[in-house]
Amino acid sequence: MSPAVSRSQQRSAALALAAKRGKTSPSKLRGSARQMYESMTAAQLREFAETKIKGLPKRVKKKK
Questions:
Q1: Is 26:18 a contact under the CB 8 Å cutoff?
Q2: CA atoms within a 13 Å half-sphere pointing along the CA-CB vector of 62
């Protein structure tokens, strides 16, 4: 796995990781955070969530 490529991806991973650890309720997750929670392991989420946000774009446009 590679680190997060945008601030929103890093933020979603952090929210999903908090839910995996039991610090927040998974029912409160929406959108990409819920998808990450359901499809990734805690180790994968930790790698994305630990990415430093300095210099990252806010969002990355989807490729068509």
A1: no
A2: 1
Q: How many CB atoms lie within 10 A of CB 1?
A: 11
Domain assignments of the chain as residue spans, ordered by start:
7-49
Give the separation between CA 35 and CA 48, rounded to whole angstroms: 14
Sign of the CA dihedral with 60 first, then 34, 51, and 8 last: positive
If pLDDT is split at 50, 70 and 90, which confidence band does 40 have?
very high
Chain position carrying tokens 């989420």: 45
Residue 1 pLDDT: 61
In the structure, what pLDDT confidence band is assigned to residue 38 with cuts at 50, 70 and 90? Answer: very high
Which whole-number Å values give the CA distances from 35 to 13, 25, 54, 55, in the listed order?
10, 14, 25, 25
